[in-house]
Write a structure and sequence with these properties.
This protein is an alpha+beta fold and 298 residues long. It contains 13 helices and 7 strands. The chain has 2 domains: 152 residues, no CATH class; 87 residues, no CATH class. The chain has a 4-stranded antiparallel sheet with strand order 4-5-6-7. Strands 1-3-2 form a 3-stranded mixed sheet. Helix 1 runs antiparallel to helix 3. 33% of the residues are buried. The mean pLDDT is 92.
Length: 298
Amino acid sequence: MNTSEMKILLTKYVSFIDGISLKYQYPDNIKHLLYVIVPAFVIKYGLKREHFILNCLSEIPIVITGKEDPRYQALYVSYPYKDNTIKTKKRIYLNRYNNIPFLQLIDNLVHEFNHAINSFKNEVTIKDDIFYLRTGLAKTSFNKDTLEIIEKEKTYVLEEIINSKQTELIIDIIKKLKDLNIEDVRIQNTLEAVKNSVDDKYISSSYFSMKYYCQELLNNKTFLLTIENLRIDGNIDDIEYWFDGIYGDKGYKTLVNLLYQMIELQNKKGFFVKRKIKDTALQLVKMSKQFNQNCNLK
């Protein structure tokens, strides 16, 4: 996308954002951030997905809870409920809003909207008596009759890592938009604030160590672009077959299990735990390098 096209996008969605901000009663700072976040999403995922992105933003409200929860600063949640058929109610919750750094608020908004957009298509499947609800790469299974949770797939850890990486890329896009010199003062001031908050390439604190261990994998164009396309279109059942075709038999399951194991270990203490974390990290680094070596396009 060239400079002229990006400049048009920066003002194209103002009236749309004003409309949803009025509908959901968003405060001005959220509205002004959406002025720059929405064009960045369209630049990231392409004009062919423009309507899809706007539809997601229109249907999924941001709810400021006022909880000031330090552990879960923000959440994307899709609730299943029954209304003749099983339907879902989607929300983005901002638990930390008043006492939060400007850049962290942007990260939270981009991160959760990215979850939402990448969970919108093919969100629900029903097999036998099991109802499956997709959040990005991971499915949660429910009893179809009671809607009680049966199991959440371990893939949610990989989902968070991919989502955090994409959040960084989208915030980098927002930062670069400052150079377009938009006449709208609200947009220009927001872009100026973003640029002044990011020194160089943006690095999110979310899942930082996990991204570090998998950095060769996350920087691999084949891996990131293929996951990106399959995930946003909801074709996640194809990922394991594709990944194993490059890495080798049971590679995807091994990757998912190692990432989940790392999360579990990071919540524990002790000498042997530290040793296990180191061993798991080395296995993740080795897997990333092996996948990278097997790819024609890196």
